[in-house]
Amino acid sequence: xxxxxxxxxxxxxxxxxxxxxxxxxxxxxxxxxxxxxxxxxxxxxxxxxxxxxxxxxxxxxxxxxxxxxxxxxxxxxxxxxxxxxxxxxxxxxxxxxxxxxxxxxxxxxxxxxxxxxxxxxxxxxxxxxxxxxxxxxxxxxxxxxxx
Length: 147
Ligand SMILES: Nc1nc2c(ncn2[C@@H]2O[C@H](COP(=O)(O)OP(=O)(O)OP(=O)(O)O)[C@@H](O)[C@H]2O)c(=O)[nH]1
Ligand SMILES: [Mg+2]
What we know:
Elements (H helix, E strand, L loop, with lengths): L13 E8 L2 E8 L18 E7 L6 H11 L9 E7 L9 H7 L10 E5 L8 H16 L3
Parallel strand pairs: 3-4, 4-5
Antiparallel strand pairs: 1-2
Keywords: GTP-binding, Magnesium, Metal-binding, Nucleotide-binding
GO molecular function: GTP binding; GTPase activity; metal ion binding
InterPro entries: ARL2/3, P-loop_NTPase, Small_GTPase_ARF/SAR
């Protein structure tokens, strides 16, 4: 958020960012998605309240890989208490996959273990980015008082 998407490069390793959102401090660990980096994801599972899964809706070739990785992650015990936000990104691009396609192709309706929510968004235009964070915060708040 607030960054120029035209100058970003692939995340090597991870980047920590803190965003203040309506009085809540969100510590965000942005981990690189390249295949060679995925084995490092497990280093960041501890104390995770929310998993934000950013899907490239213009990339039909890798959507199966995307589904397998996501469902694999959801089996991880240390992520059991986390909610799941799926950002269907790049919806500013013509011909991108629709929300319905993403739900079907990622088999989101099969998810029984986590609260999930899907939002079409665009890092380019900023569409729905705040709405996504708001859902994450509201969901985390609900669980805060359960412990
Ligand atoms: N049109 C459009 N392009 C986008 C959008 N979001 C990201 N991009 C472009 O997509 C490319 C990849 O973006 P990254 O932010 O590096 O993607 P990433 O998922 O962080 O990739 P890794 O760091 O390798 O995991 C860049 O060229 C971005 O400018 C979007 O919403 N719309
Ligand atoms: Mg990145």
